[in-house]
Amino acid sequence: MPPVSKRVRKYDSGKIRAAVLAQFGHVREAVRGLSDEQLERATGLGDWTVRDLAAHVTMAVETVSRNLDREEPAATALGLPDWPSATAARAADIADAVRELAERYPDLDALYARTEERVTERLATAPDARLLGTRTGAMTLADYLVTRTVELVVHTDDLNRAAGTEIPLDRQALAACTRLLADALAVKAPGASTEVRIPPYAVVQCVAGPRHTRGTPPNVVETDPLTWIRLATGRTRWETALHEARVSASGERADISGLLPLMG
Fold first, then answer.
1. From the CB of residue 150, how many other CB atoms can be counted at a distance below 10 Å?
2. What sign has the CA pseudo-torsion 141, 146, 147, 153?
3. Distance (Å, rounded) from C-alpha 174 to C-alpha 54?
């Protein structure tokens, strides 16, 4: 089990860059093989079809290139663990943009090829410290790429469930996604009375109350990375995960259902 830490989490930029490109490549390969019937299936994400969802994945990556093309902002305005909670305000705008993109690019593979070429070219020369004026707030490129692992992992899982695919999850992308959403929980409910364990990637303490100093903490939540991601993004309900034994919770402060989801 990794140690619990209150320090700001650091990510290996080289590994994150590679993870973003690798996961996007996995999705592109799978989308290339989808049938028309699969593309028209419902996703359970509003009225999005699988085609809409596949188009959205390209948007999530294209924002890197687009933001690098824009003027650099004066200063950072958004900490990385604050990003998940800042995404809710953009949901309606994203839905409209996705439908427009899916209609404009019926050839999804061509759209993926264009997106992959653009982001690969821009990342080849862009430094980690370069500031991006994203719609959720100004962030460094290094931090923004971590948020792209969340978008890619979450929507890879969405595609797998909706289209019946088995798109693999890059280990580094899955780890970064898990850790960022765990850190967002600790920011949302600061404290040290409850320990949330998501082996093998993350352990965080959260929720105000008595702090434990040694031994097994009195309030413990434990689950696997994919279940955690689904809980944190509202894809799975807390009660369902408990009933299906995909999450364990012990202690009077271990019910964190009121803190979920962290993003939609």
1. 25
2. positive
3. 19
Domains, the chain, ordered by start = 13-174 (1.20.120.450), 176-259 (3.30.1050.40)
pTM here is 0.93
Question: Cα torsion for 152, 156, 157, 161, to the nearest 10°?
Answer: 150
User: Up-side HSE of residue 37: CA atoms within 13 Å toward CB?
Assistant: 2
- Rounded Cα–Cα distance for residues 75 and 44 (Å): 38
Beta-strand (E) ranges in the chain? Answer: 131-134, 137-140, 194-198, 202-206, 220-223, 247-250
- Strand pairing class (137-140; 194-198): unpaired
Q: Tens digit of pLDDT for each residue in 190-202?
A: 999 999 999 999 9
List, in order, residues 6 or more apart from 73 with CB less than 8 Å away: 131, 132, 133, 138
Q: What is the rounded distance in angstroms from the CA atom of residue 75 to the CA atom of residue 69?
A: 17
Mean pLDDT for all residues in the chain:
92
Token pair belonging to 91: 């949901």
Tokens 């061509």 sit on residue: 110
**pLDDT tens per residue across span 111-145:** 999 999 999 999 999 999 999 999 899 999 999 99
* Cβ 182 vs Cβ 213: under 8 Å: no
pLDDT of residue 257: 97
The tens digit of pLDDT for each residue in 162-195 reads 999 999 999 999 999 999 999 999 999 999 999 9
